[in-house]
UniProtKB/TrEMBL annotation:
It comes from Desulfocicer vacuolatum DSM 3385. It comes from the Bacteria. It holds the Pfam family Aminotran_1_2. GO terms for biological process: amino acid metabolic process. GO terms for molecular function: pyridoxal phosphate binding; transaminase activity. The keyword Chloroplast does not apply. This is Aspartate/methionine/tyrosine aminotransferase. Gene3D superfamilies: 3.90.1150.100, Type I PLP-dependent aspartate aminotransferase-like (Major domain). Residues 60-434 form the Aminotransferase class I/classII large domain. CDD domains: AAT_like. The lineage of its organism: Bacteria, Pseudomonadati, Thermodesulfobacteriota, Desulfobacteria, Desulfobacterales.
Length: 442
């Protein structure tokens, strides 16, 4: 807990915030998890009556698309709530998922390889579980960080090993050597990254994806490509079905892939917990002796669906699958521009970045190779002379809640700023609070 403050006359009552932090029982609130920050911000907000500017959690701040809601309502009226869904997913969703991948990524994946999961979180968890049981030597997952902290928590829950490196200083031509330094040890079963990246918002380009694919083939490792922010690199228009440019993907360059496609952000559908796990056809049909020993079946796709996903949740919410199917169909048919509906996050980022910079903050991950970073769902900031944890804790006194980069595997000090919950009407108060913070700690 921090004891050094430049000014105790803060926007939220100083004594109250201090008391709440002390009572939270979290050893270092500045290093708290997303949910710990959510909890303490809620408590301070309730006790002080002072509304926080929330930046900690990537909750979509937009209404879910009507087409999805109607799809679900219709399915519910048709009685799906009473029936267990098929483990491998309903046919309309599998069909539209396969089309979606063709339309927006220009990749051919048959329907059978497109499987609904309870959020892409579950798809990741299932992937970690199966990949951890296929080879006794390859027992470690490699993260290209910074990344989404919960995936490492999943590995901790599974009791599995992971290694990680911050990719920022190893991009472009440097990536191959860095990746090879890990893969050549022979213990890596899979490489994980998100693209666009949570939290830095850097976007791996086609050359880098080719490098990853080449090494995945050379060392026979699986690439888990986390597309939680599908098509949300707003610098390019990725919204036109069947027309380039497409969402960049490693699937263009290797057969060793698993794609995690989330509906939470691009489709503002986080509450329904429905996502897609897409397995390369080659991997889907692969046979593995260790799987047979461990799960009683040696086929990758079959084991994943009928052994692992079955035991997790017996399938994915029936009506939510219909909702997602309806949204994908509308997107594939060109009737619903899902990218357009979330572009507002990028616009917000422009305005909010300006406020931070004006108050003396720096952008941590500021460049995307030679280009200035794009504006999207997240960006990252630091304040001179402060660790990320100190920054996060001190900002609680200013009515601002965020998470430190420390939990994301970043090599840098700072915090993540998430656009989704910051309303237009809050920009004035945010500017005031940041300006006071900048003055107090300059
Ligand atoms: C990189 C990344 N992966 C996965 C997820 C989880 O997605 P879902 O809601 O589909 O489980 C998130 C959500 O924030 C994320 O940022």
């Amino acid at each position: 807990m921090i004891t050094e403050f430049k000014n105790q006359n803060t926007p939220v009552d100083f004594g109250l915030v201090k008391e709440k932090i002390k009572n939270s029982g979290v050893p270092s609130i500045g290093n708290g998890t997303i949910r710990e920050i959510v909890k303490i911000a809620n408590e301070i907000q309730q006790a002080s009556g002072e509304k926080f500017v929330r930046m900690e959690m990537g909750v979509p701040g937009l209404a879910p698309p009507e087409v999805g809601i109607h799809g679900e309502i219709e399915a519910l009226k048709n009685g799906v709530a009473a029936k267990y869904p098929m483990l491998e997913g309903i046919l309309p969703l599998k069909k539209e998922a396969s089309r979606f991948i063709k339309m927006f990524m220009d990749v051919d994946v048959p329907r059978e390889c497109c499987i609904p999961t309870v959020g892409s979180m579950q798809g990741g968890y299932a992937s970690f579980m199966i990949l951890g049981n296929m080879d006794t030597v390859k027992n470690t997952i490699l993260f290209m960080d910074p990344g989404f902290p919960v995936q490492k928590q999943q590995l901790n829950v599974l009791g599995r090993k992971y290694e990680a490196f911050d990719v920022y200083n190893h991009r472009g031509d440097k990536l191959e050597q860095k990746l090879e330094s890990y893969l050549s040890k022979g213990n890596i079963s899979a490489i994980v990254y998100s693209n666009p990246n949570n939290p830095s918002w850097i976007c791996l380009n086609e050359d880098e994806l080719q490098t990853i694919a080449k090494l995945a083939d050379k060392y026979d490792v699986i690439v888990i490509e986390d597309l939680a922010y599908f098509a949300m690199d707003f610098r390019k228009d990725l919204s036109m079905p069947g027309r380039p440019p497409f969402q960049p993907t490693v699937a263009k360059y290797t057969n060793n892939y698993i794609l995690l496609i989330s509906s939470s952000k691009a489709f503002s559908y986080a509450g329904q917990r429905v996502g897609l796990l897409v397995i390369s056809p080659d991997l889907y049909h692969r046979q593995n002796f260790h799987l047979k020993e461990r799960f009683g079946s040696d086929k990758f796709g079959y084991t994943l669906i009928y052994k692992i996903l079955y035991s997790f949740s017996s399938g994915t919410s029936h009506s939510a699958q219909y909702g997602l199917a309806a949204m994908l169909k509308a997107a594939n048919d060109g009737d619903f521009n899902f990218v357009e509906s979330v572009r507002v996050y990028g616009e917000r980022a422009v305005a909010i970045k300006t406020l931070f910079k004006k108050a003396g903050f720096d952008i941590v991950y500021s460049m995307d190779l030679e280009e200035v970073l794009g504006d999207g769902f997240y960006f990252t900031v630091s304040f001179p002379g402060m660790t990320g944890a100190e920054l996060v804790e001190r900002l609680l006194y200013y009515g601002i809640s965020a998470i430190a980069l420390s939990g994301t595997g970043s090599d840098h000090e700072g915090m993540r700023v998430c656009m989704s919950q910051i309303g237009e009407d809050e920009l004035g108060i945010l500017a005031e609070r940041l300006e006071q913070f900048g003055r107090d700690y300059q």
